């Protein structure tokens, strides 16, 4: 059954009318996660250690820039903690959408090895309908569903197919992790092959792929194209990101682009000398405006596009 998209945003603190979101949205972030495989604790955002820094940044962005929603894409096997997300959301005064799914293969949880696509789909649908564990908190997005390389591995293929079927069954949108921007076309083929509309799919990390032709192809097929690692200069310069985004806009696909920072370790927090969640607003958007973007384009990129991705709704212009 192809379930229609939700009419309201499903946040960790309750339902939210998309029309009530009057400020910008960060559609790909992490507030709590644990990706530590090296044992050095670097790829971690622990609520007990880093929560105050996280909420401090979000509260400041809410007051300075009107930040109105964060989509938190920490899923199964990534250290997800929806109870902590609810607490951080309340403390910062910013609504947060939680996620479900599986990341790319090194972070797959044991059931991925033993279950088939149908069984994995059932796991996701149950979590979406009943809530995560005993919390009653229901995810509002599938993501970040991962693969690495130009073609997903068999395990990643299984996870992508299950997530696509769960999106069909529940109406939730689906955001992917395309490692270093690669493999997005293959992800889209797999997901649409399960019957999922491209307009309910966001292909992740495309700002790490210096290939405007791929971006145009994804957008022309109706998928959202995520420029979601803004400020991560060690992976890609913001100068290149700006060039790629401008090319996509000039090709007529401004309504398919999403912008975020993907803060994924404590060293990226402002309190620890990093660029922080606010880099998009403080550094990148001023450069976009200097390149010719007006208020309407900025509102489209930072508010209307993510809300349409999440709910299918065309919200009013600010």
Automatic annotation (TrEMBL):
The keyword Metal-binding applies. The keyword Hydrolase applies. InterPro entries: Metal_Hydrolase (IPR032466), Phosphotriesterase (IPR001559). Coiled coil: none annotated. Keywords: Hydrolase, Metal-binding. Belongs to the metallo-dependent hydrolases superfamily. Phosphotriesterase family. This is Phosphotriesterase. It comes from Streptomyces rhizosphaericola. The lineage of its organism: Bacteria, Bacillati, Actinomycetota, Actinomycetes, Kitasatosporales.
